[in-house]
Write a structure and sequence with these properties.
about 1900 residues; seven-stranded antiparallel β-sheet; six-stranded mixed β-sheet; 62 helices; alpha+beta
């Protein structure tokens, strides 16, 4: 029984003590005046009566009622029912407030809180003061309080004849039963009717169970006000301990909302601050750091604005505001969505029927009270689903004297499958759940609805999940029970209470509320108290029972078992492996081990492993041999490495007894246990794990204590939670003991308590031992433990963060290295372990109720236990060192190049994944090759990693990743976890410009000094102090001992000696190597249409016999200069000039006068421009002495020179550096006639002007128009007569934005589409309209393709100068000549560098992307802007190609003339001239434009220490990328394959060859590099030149050859340049982990794959199929294309037949020739005068060869004088029929050959090939003309089938015959030629 009300209080308005305007509440009277002993009077009631403050009011407001809740210091809630009414203020009150009346009126106008309803004012000036009647009670009967206070007010207002003292006395003495009506004997006990003595009657129903909250309608109202989603958010926020604030203008609503939210939280109780109505004076409470649920009047909303971490629910507005910094974790799915849908069914039953065609008659909606219970039922079900099976995770730590219960959180989360769930984690860690465990964990107590639900209904809820109607039915059943609990007897609920009349508050009450008689009320109370003391105490008999546990738990959402679907098979593998280990079948076990380790990723397999291992332990000990021990430890480690620190699946718990059981004998008396090998896991240093383990073991032992002795024999495994059916669980045992406890004698009780305590105590000692086992490292001299495990180091700072652990680690490490005192370090470890164990012991013993004496004893024991264990470990450590170490994988030595030497031997490292998915077994499939374990080697040439994957399932694949030292771009130290042991190790990340990345973690055996030495050596090799320190120079230096180093001081002599050597070797080299490549020289443009003059010799002979006087017009050259000249003539430039017909070396020879250009030797000593080649093409009319002056106008003295001439339009392409400040700008501003006092610079620009005019005059179109070449008349009027537009034109290429504002019309078409973006903008808009003639521009094509070539007008400038926009600012158009400026914005070298850095990071990220997807790669690729730069280069190049093709010449004059200029000029030539698309031509192009014209390879590649700061700038690589883009679009136009470009891209940065070293020809000559390769043929010495190497390689393999090569002779390529048409070069992304980069050919060719092998058991040969992994194998080698495969097959067959192998190129050419014959139609065609082999004319159509009529390509034969001399034999088109000779076997031996006639003839091969001496054999038997390399050669190089020859006749004199042959042999010795002709002719007639 309990009092209905404890206190009645009358509170009135009173003045504020400090005299401020606001009043304050004063307690006028309180009854009883003395505090009850069991319930003191709550303080601060005055504040809560008027939460908005005590204020006078100008109107009489209606009475208000609400219930405030106060919580006392003992967490007891006091309900304060407040009824407030207004009375006229007394004069004293008015005076107090007069000063501040204005303020209050304003507040009233704003709708202050006092103004609750419209009211009628009293007399003018009259104020009303509030007065409040308060009932204070510990029971929540709000309706009864409302009625009782209303009755008192009614008696006062209506003046009823009832004594107020009696009513209040009765109210205070009213006693009602506590909850539990159904448990009492009669209805009268459960229902109490009370009367306060005023003719009233009230029925009070007490709820059946006091544990269930009373909600009335509050939950339903809360949902109405806020909606489902908002209430769910608040529910989750309250459960996860966030701050919740309700706002409303109604205090009653605030109370209801808070009560509703609390009702939803059942069965958890809210244990933080709970204030449904917070007074205004206490608003600062909202800043408290603890969670709360508080209600505040909406008038104070402004004060709540700055609260940053409070969730605000506005009840009136229906909104919930969650601040940004607050994250409310949602309910775990599928519970969130299920709850949401059930709530919507309850709140809106019509929703389900809304779409029905024939809706049923509307059902009656539940009443508000019923709906309230239904909503609560939904949440009750939710909790039952969430907490289902929680009782299986309770640990009974003590039963007597009071139960001590702990909850095993990790096991609960693990078994529910919710380890990752944020919501449940927070709920289980919260205070509410702790209260839930201590209250509901008790095994023997009264049960309620929730206990029944969670124990018996879970299966039903799971079955109903997909049946909404069944769910609803269940909800309604639960709602009925909840409703019945609140209203057990609805029939007797009859109230009769008087109420005041309508508007009674407006009537003038004759007097204020009277002062009551204290004595009378007190007397009534005392009487009642005395009567109660006499009566026997009413004891409520609790119906206590054993709480049902319910079924064991299941996962909330059954995870799909896809990953471990075949788990039975996996478990079988685990069991087999373990039985093999214990049976000693180690080989079998070893085979299964990888599969077991893979299987152990699954939970079931790990559990199976622990169970299997348990079976092999007898009497807590299992001694193994070394191998068995290793296997068991390895499996244990694998099991534990996936355990989180919580050990949610109990794996570590199950292994804990095993690690102290398995052991091996190291020596007599020394045993090593498994725990010393499995310490490296985070779980062992987690206090929560040890606590859970400890409590689990204590429970097992306490349970055993109470079980009958008969059951003791059945041993229960430690830590096992599941009880078997025939045994009672620990909770059942505890329940039974609690039931018996009151019946036991005092002595028996004491005995049980002592037994339990000693059980806990002994377990504490046991655990102190266990913890020392697992926490003390084997080698205690190393503080490994602190460094490597998040744990003890953290616990020192009592925080579980990884940051502190790494800090502690670094501190420990430095301590370790600096101090030599092992003991100090040992104590440090021991001290840390002792502190950790003591902290654990303190916590568990205090919680388990161990006495303080015992606890002190434990603290004394712990250090001894630790010390003893350390001593044992020292012996074990000492002995274990003597064991043969476990073999680490053997270091695999890398294969090295012939001259490559190892600088640093292998350092053991792990190669880690770097963000590329291929190696890690990503989307491309394939195995996880990385991480790999191996070693890194540093050689003079490369950094090489070789190793094996750590994943045992990948098999023994060797992983190789290497890159040239010279390619290193960035080196960074990193700290990473090693893949195997998960230890934190130092590492290095090396990034190279060949797109390799080595991300390595050093093995623990590699000391930091070794790693540092590696870094230093690497740095030394990467940046040698001098270029001679690079690999290309040191390579092979051992072969020439004693060679003195070249000095750079005396340049002249070194040049001379060089030249002498060159001349000496010239005779040997000329016929062989360079000069004789292609001797066909098109006639110069004046002689078009005329036959070549008879006396024209070939240029080489002219050059060789030049007279000194002819070299310069002014003076003769010294002899040494002559030699220099002869060497210069051999350079690529010169060979190309001759091919293009760009003039001769003379300016005085009569025949050269008519040529517009000449080769000038002015720079032969590199005096004018050091970065230019020695010979330059300049206009014929410019004298050499003028060039010196012209060069000063240009940056780096790089004045304009011709580098190419179009064969068709005869336009020339020139290149130069950018202009100096006074350059063309000055030229345009200067007057034509120089004044006498002109400065040096002005004369320079005049020279420059003249020079440009000379260039223009040298052009055919200009010469035709003006009739002369010289620069005589230089007036604009004169020039104007020939040129359509006499004005100088400056075409501005600028931003399109600016273009629209310019005075030219808007552009269209190709050139108009060129855009600029930012600084590095491309071509602007105006140039389009200017260049294209503006009015005749063709429509643009798609994809950025050029418009129709016809759009270019003939009336264009003769010369366009493409220059930097920045230089040409402010150029004012001036009447001038026929050149036009095209300013463009170009990107600078530093932008290329920055872009390349980003490209590297995009292609080789360095660390895996958070979500690896193609999108992230493409995004980073776009950010790099690499493709945009490629796009701009191609765009400018295509523009120049168009201009040249239309007949205008172009001068490219950008930056210093050696970066972008070189890129553009090279691309233009490649696109315009098919010759440069051949292997020979491309080499010539690179040698000419990049090497001779001085691209700064060493500077851009940062080859030496000096260049270290500038970094790697891949200008040449960017050019190769552009070529690759063109190659992709025109695959049939290039003779070389894409691999050729990659090869050059790799080796231009590798420094393996000398070709791409140094910055110019001048520097190469200085170092003696330029001509040495022309010397005597060296033996097998390594190639110094990349070209030489590629030549040798091409002879052996077709790897550089493009089989699709079928060029169109005149084709000018115009590639699409839009970014959408560009592809990422696979050079950047592909890699071959099997052998490293495939560009060092000697290394890339691994041992050949063996053919079908016989199986050892004699079975059938295995399949020849093999797996090709995309990132591991070299796909071109594993899957060669069909032609390469056939050529390989042919070589193999030749080898089988013992024939010398034929070169692949000869085979290929023969096959192509044969294919042409077959494709030719019948008919003989017209005879030709030369022996011809037919070449079909290939046209491009969808990549297919279309064969048209054959066009002859000459195969000319010339005679050698030593055999038989004569003129060229020739023949004509072949007959279509196949020759009978093809029936002869090609594979006959040389001895059986018929040689009818033989001799040496010179043969000229393909179009560009030189003449070569061959031994020809005429075979009349086979009707063949065969040829061999030399007389004794047995291998036939080619066959001419005479069946295809119709006639033989002497040919015309031949151009370019070899010089070593007496020329007359070619032309005059007719008889020997006639002899050959007769022999062939007789053979033909025989046929």
């Amino acid at each position: 029984m309990a009092r209905l009300a404890d206190y009645f209080v009358l509170v009135a308005f009173g003045p504020h003590p400090r005299g401020s305007g606001e009043g304050q509440g004063h307690i006028l009277q309180r009854f009883p005046e003395k505090d009850w002993e069991d319930n003191p009077f709550p303080q601060g009631i005055e504040l809560f009566c008027q939460p908005s403050g005590w204020q006078l009011c100008p109107e009489r407001n209606p009475p208000t009622f609400f219930v405030a809740v106060l919580t006392d210091i003992n967490s007891e809630r006091h309900y304060c029912a407040c009824l407030t009414f207004w009375e006229p203020a007394e004069p004293t009150q008015e005076v107090v407030c007069a000063e501040d009346a204005t303020e209050q009126e304003e507040e009233a106008d704003e709708g202050g809180p006092a103004q609750l309803s419209p009211a009628t004012p009293g007399p003018p000036g009259q104020l009303f003061a509030p007065k409040t009647l308060v009932l204070v009670s510990r029971l929540d009967h709000a309706e009864v309080f409302r009625n009782s206070l209303g009755l008192i007010y009614t008696i006062h207002v209506e003046g009823l004849n009832v004594g107020l003292e009696n009513v209040i006395g009765n109210l205070l003495t009213c006693i009602i039963p506590l909850a539990g009506g159904s448990q009492l004997d009669s209805v009268e006990d459960g229902v109490r009717t009370i009367s306060l003595g005023a003719g009233d009657r009230q029925v009070i129903q007490t709820p059946l169970a006091d544990s269930l909250p009373i909600s009335r309608c509050s939950v339903a109202l809360l949902f109405r006000q806020l909606g489902i989603t908002n209430v769910l958010s608040l529910f989750c926020a309250a459960l996860t301990e966030h701050k919740v604030l309700f706002l409303s203008r109604s205090y009653q609503r605030l109370s209801d909302a808070c009560r509703g939210l609390l009702a939803l939280l059942f069965p958890l109780r809210y244990s933080f601050t709970y204030v449904p109505i917070l007074p205004a004076q206490l608003l600062e409470v909202l800043s408290t750091p603890t969670p709360f649920i508080i209600g505040v009047n909406a008038a104070f909303q402004a004060e709540t604005q700055e609260l940053l971490d409070v969730i605000v629910a506005d009840l009136d507005g229906g909104t919930v505001t969650v601040p940004e910094c607050v994250h409310i974790p949602p309910l775990p799915e599928p519970l969130q969505s299920q709850t949401h849908s059930v709530l919507s069914m309850v709140l809106d039953p019509e929703l389900e029927l809304a779409d029905l065609a024939f809706p049923p008659p509307s059902t009656n909606a539940s009443s508000l009270k019923m709906q309230d219970k239904e909503l609560r039922a939904v949440f009750l079900r939710l909790f039952a689903q969430l907490l289902q099976g929680y009782r299986w995770c309770l640990h009974m730590v003590r039963i007597h004297p009071e139960p001590v219960i702990r909850f095993h959180k990790a096991a609960f989360l693990g078994q529910r499958g919710l380890v990752e769930d944020d919501f449940l984690m927070k709920v289980l860690e919260g205070m509410a759940f702790a209260g839930f465990v201590s209250e509901r964990g008790v095994p023997y107590r009264a049960t309620d609805l929730f206990d029944e639900l969670v124990a018996h209904e879970v299966a039903r809820m799971r079955a109903d999940e997909n049946h909404p109607q069944r769910v609803l039915r269940h909800v309604k059943e639960l709602a009925e029970q909840l409703y019945k609990n609140e209203n057990p007897y609805p029939a007797v609920a009859m109230h009769k209470v008087q109420r005041p009349g309508e508007a009674s508050h407006l009537r003038r009450v004759p007097r204020p509320f009277p002062r009551l008689d204290d004595g009378m009320v007190q007397w009534i109370v005392d009487q009642a108290t005395a009567k109660m003391q006499g009566a026997p105490p009413a004891v409520k008999a609790e119906r206590r029972t054993t709480v049902p546990s319910g079924p064991p738990m299941t996962a909330i959402l059954e995870r799909s078992g896809g990953l471990h679907g075949n788990s039975a098979r996996r478990l079988e593998v685990v069991r087999n492996c373990i039985s093999y280990v214990f049976e000693g079948k180690m080989l079998e076990a070893k085979k299964l081990l990888p599969a077991v380790l893979r299987a152990l990723k699954g939970r079931a397999a790990r559990r199976c492993l622990t169970q299997e291992l348990h079976l092999h332990v007898q009497q807590n000990r299992a001694v193994l041999d070394h191998q068995q021990f290793d296997f068991v430890v390895r499996m244990m480690n694998c099991c534990l490495q996936d355990c989180t620190s919580l050990d949610e699946h109990g794996i570590a718990a199950a292994l804990l007894p095993l690690v102290t059981a398995f052991c091996r004998k190291l020596s007599p008396g020394v045993t090593q246990f498994a725990y010393s090998c499995v310490q490296e896991h985070v779980v062992w240093s987690t206090p929560q794990f040890w606590e859970a383990m400890f409590y689990g073991d204590v429970q097992t032992h306490i349970r055993a204590l109470y079980l009958e002795p008969a059951e003791d024999g059945d041993h229960v495994q430690v830590g096992e939670l599941s009880a078997r059916e025939d045994e009672r669980s620990a909770l059942d045992v505890a329940s039974e003991q609690r039931r018996l406890w009151p019946t036991l004698s005092r002595e028996k009780q004491q005995e049980l308590v002592q037994k339990e305590e000693s059980t806990v105590f002994s377990q504490a000692i046991h655990y102190a031992n266990r913890m020392s086992y697992l926490l003390l490292p084997l080698d205690s001299s190393k503080s490994r433990l602190l460094r490597e495990r998040a744990g003890l180091g953290d616990l020192e700072s009592a925080s579980n963060s990884l940051v502190t652990s790494s800090m502690a680690g670094s501190v420990a490490e430095s301590y370790d290295t600096e101090s030599g005192f092992e003991d100090a370090e040992t104590c440090d470890v021991a001290g840390a372990v002792v502190r950790f164990i003591n902290r654990f012991v303190d916590k568990v013993c205090t919680e388990s109720g161990v006495t303080s004496d015992h606890l002190k004893g434990l603290h004394v024991m712990v250090p001894d236990i630790v010390q003893m264990h350390i001593e044992t470990l020292e012996a074990v450590h000492r002995e274990s060192k003597r064991l043969p170490p476990i073999q680490k994988p053997k270091l695999l030595r890398p294969r090295l190049l012939p001259d490559e030497e190892c600088v640093l031997d292998g350092l053991r490292v792990y190669l880690l994944p770097d963000g590329r998915e291929g190696g890690a077994g990503g989307t491309g499939g394939g195995p996880a090759l990385l991480p790999a374990e191996g070693a890194v080697f540093l050689t003079t040439y490369r950094v090489i990693f070789t190793g094996m994957p750590t994943d045992p399932l990948v098999g023994e694949q060797v992983v190789v990743r290497s890159f040239p030292v010279a390619a290193l771009t960035k080196e960074k130290r990193i700290s990473v976890q090693t893949p195997v042991d998960q230890l934190l190790q130092d590492g290095l990340q090396l990034r190279s410009c060949t797109f390799q990345l080595l991300k390595m973690a050093f093995d623990e055996e590699v000391g930091s000094d070794s790693a540092e030495l590696f870094r230093k050596q690497l740095h030394k090799l990467r940046y040698p102090p001098d270029i001679r320190g690079t690999f290309a120079f040191t390579l092979g230096s051992a072969h020439t001992p004693g060679r003195p180093p070249r000095t750079t001081k005396d340049k002249g002599p070194s040049l001379r000696t060089l030249s002498r050597n060159i001349v000496k070797n010239a005779k040997k080299t000329l016929g062989r190597q360079y000069v004789t490549r292609k001797k066909y020289n098109p006639p110069s443009w004046e002689h078009r249409g005329q036959p070549p003059p008879e006396d024209q010799e070939d240029e080489i002979s002219v050059l060789e016999e030049l007279e000194p006087s002819t070299l310069t017009p002014s003076s003769a050259l010294k002899p040494s200069d002559r030699m220099t000249m002869s060497s210069l003539v051999e350079r690529a430039c010169c060979r190309d000039y001759q091919r293009l017909g760009l003039g001769t070396l003379s300016s005085s020879l009569s025949r050269a006068k008519s040529e517009p250009f000449r080769i000038s030797p002015v720079n032969r000593m590199y005096a004018i421009c050091r970065s230019y080649p020695g010979l330059l093409i300049v206009p014929q009319s410019v004298q050499d002495n003028a060039l010196q002056r012209v060069s000063r106008c240009y940056r780096q003295n790089r004045f304009p020179v011709v580098c190419w001439r179009s064969g068709r339009s005869r336009a020339v392409l020139l290149r130069s550096g950018g202009l100096h400040g006074k350059g063309v700008v000055g030229l345009f501003k200067a007057q034509n006639a120089p004044s006498p006092g002109q400065s040096q610079a002005d004369s320079g620009s005049l020279e420059q002007e003249k020079y440009l005019q000379a260039v223009v005059s040298s052009m055919p179109r200009y010469a035709d128009a003006s009739g002369r070449n010289t620069l005589s008349g230089f007036s604009s009027a004169h020039v104007g007569s020939h040129v359509p537009s006499p004005r100088a034109r400056v075409t501005t290429l600028s931003n399109p934005m600016a273009a629209s504002a310019s005075r030219w019309t808007a552009p269209r078409g190709k050139l108009g589409s060129v855009r600029a973006s930012g600084r590095s903008g491309g071509l602007g808009a105006d140039v389009g309209s200017r260049l294209a003639g503006r009015d005749m521009l063709g429509p643009p094509q798609a994809n950025g393709a050029p418009p129709d070539p016809g759009f270019l007008r003939p009336q264009r400038a003769a010369l366009y100068i493409i220059g930097d926009k920045a230089q040409l600012k402010g150029v004012r158009p001036d009447p001038l000549q026929q050149w036009e400026l095209v300013p463009i914005e170009v990107f600078e070298a530093r932008q290329v560098k920055a872009s390349f850095k980003k490209l590297l990071k995009a292609c080789v990220p360095g660390c895996p992307f958070p979500e690896p997807s193609p999108v992230s790669f493409l995004r980073s690729l776009e950010d790099s802007e690499w493709l945009i730069q490629i796009h701009k280069l191609l765009q400018v190049s295509v523009l120049v190609v168009e201009l040249l093709d239309s007949g205008s010449s172009v001068l490219v004059s950008l930056e210093d003339g050696w970066d972008i200029t070189t890129q553009v000029v090279s691309l233009v030539q490649l696109l315009s001239d098919p010759f440069y698309r051949t292997l020979e031509g491309f080499r010539l192009l690179v040698e000419k434009e990049w090497l001779s014209f001085g691209h700064r390879f060493s500077h851009r590649g940062a080859h030496t220490l000096a260049g270290q700061g500038s970094g790697f700038t891949p200008v040449f690589l960017q050019f190769l990328d552009c070529v690759h883009q063109v190659h992709l679009q025109f695959p049939m136009e290039f003779e070389f394959s894409p691999f050729y470009l990659k090869f050059l891209g790799y080796h231009h940065a590798s420094r393996r060859f000398r070709t791409f070293l140094l910055d110019s020809d001048y520097e190469r000559i200085e170092l003696g590099l330029l001509y040495e390769e022309k010397g005597e043929r060296r033996g097998a010495q390594a190639c110094r030149s990349v070209w030489e190497y590629m030549d040798r390689l091409s002879k052996r393999t077709p790897v550089f050859y493009n089989y699709m090569y079928a060029p169109e002779d005149t084709e000018v390529l115009r590639p699409y340049s839009n970014v959408s048409n560009l592809k990422v070069w696979d050079f950047y992304t592909e890699e071959t982990l099997a052998e490293g980069p495939p560009y060092d050919w000697e290394l890339a060719q691994g041992p050949p794959e063996p053919p079908e092998e016989e199986r050892p058991d004699g079975g059938a040969p295995q399949s020849r199929r093999r797996v090709v992994w995309p990132c591991y194998d070299s796909r071109p080698r594993a899957q060669p294309d069909a032609i390469s495969r056939l050529l390989e097959e042919l070589q193999r067959l030749e080898a089988e037949l013992g024939r010398p192998a034929e070169r692949w190129k000869d085979t290929w050419d023969r096959v192509k020739a044969a294919q042409r014959l077959e494709g030719r139609p019948d008919g003989r065609g017209t005879p030709s005068s030369l022996l011809a082999s037919s070449v079909p004319h290939h046209r491009r159509s969808l990549g297919v060869y279309l064969q048209e009529g054959p066009v002859g390509s000459t195969l000319s034969l010339s005679l050698d004088s030593d055999q038989s001399s004569g003129s060229t034999a020739s023949s004509s088109r072949q007959a279509a029929r196949r020759s009978t000779s093809t029936l002869y076997s090609q594979f006959q031996t040389a001895e059986s050959e018929n040689r009818s006639y033989e001799g040496t003839l010179y043969k000229k091969g393909a179009f560009m090939k030189p003449w070569k001496a061959r031994w020809f054999v005429l075979d009349k038997t086979k009707h063949q003309l065969r040829y061999y390399d030399h007389r004794v050669d047995t291998e036939c190089k080619g066959v001419i089938d005479l069946a295809e020859v119709e006639a033989v006749a002497p040919g015309t004199p031949t151009l370019g015959a070899p010089k070593t042959v007496d020329e007359k042999a070619f032309f005059d010795d007719v008889p020997s030629a006639q002899q050959w002709v007769d022999q062939i002719q007789s053979c033909l007639s025989d046929a």
